[in-house]
Amino acid sequence: MAARCACRPRFLDRIRDEPPGGVAIFSGRNRGKIDRIIAALEAGLHVLADKPAIIEPADLPRLEAALTMANEQQLVLADMMTGRHNTLVRLLQALRCDPEVFGDPIAGTGDEPGVLLSGVHYLRKVVAGLPNPRPAWYFDVT
Amino acid sequence: MPETSLVVVDPGHFHATLVQQQMYPELSPVVRVYAPLGPDLIDYLSRIARYNRRPQAATDWRLDVHAGPDFSIG
């Protein structure tokens, strides 16, 4: 970790000055998010982070270390959008995974695809009646 | 005042504000915000302001914003 200090953004140091017991909220800015999560945990903060926590497979060990650290320090490290895990969604997932209910996925054809994507909320979204413009960096995949 | 407080870091997605749709008795109304001064921060502040000003079930968040020029994105 010492080697990382030289290039650590200053706010990571600031977060270390936060009194422990608070809850750090992370959303957006997926690259480097795991560094922020770890800094928050090291400061004794609980963490509610939007998905994804990491975007590179190489960061999986760091995510695992963060989860272990949170567990050892009895801190919460969790997905902030709990609706993804509510009873209705879990029930739908269970039904989707039951071949007797859902059947089997079909390969489909170009004219009749097996899977149709109808939601476009990642491109166009309305929240509480207002358009939710995506920032320009949202479309930067580099 | 409750000792547990939220610390919002570089809110780049409106999901950050969904956590603040309502007040919680266990949470301090004072929220510290660390972010670069820019459109994402302004968007976040606008959303929280709408929660605080809505006619029904208005929230009472008090934001302690740190948007110094030395803020850098990791």
Question: Main traits of this protein?
Answer:
heterodimer, A: 142 residues, alpha/beta, Rossmann fold, 3-stranded parallel sheet, 6 helices, 5 strands, disordered N terminus, B: 74 residues, 2 helices
Summary, kept brief:
The complex is a heterodimer of chains A (142) and B (74). Chain A is α/β, with parallel strands linked by helices and 142 residues long.
Structural commentary:
The complex is a heterodimer of chains A (142) and B (74). By secondary structure, chain A is α/β, with parallel strands linked by helices. Chain A has a domain at 2-82: NAD(P)-binding Rossmann-like Domain (Rossmann fold). Chain A is built from 6 helices and 5 strands; from the N terminus they run ααβαβαβααββ. In chain A, strands 1-2-3 form a 3-stranded parallel β-sheet. The termini of chain B are far apart. In chain B, 31% of the residues are buried. The mean pLDDT of chain B is 85. Helices cover 26% and strands 19% of the residues of chain B. Chain B has a 3-stranded parallel β-sheet, with no helix packed on it. At the A-B interface, α2, β1 and α3 of A face β1, α1 and α2 of B.
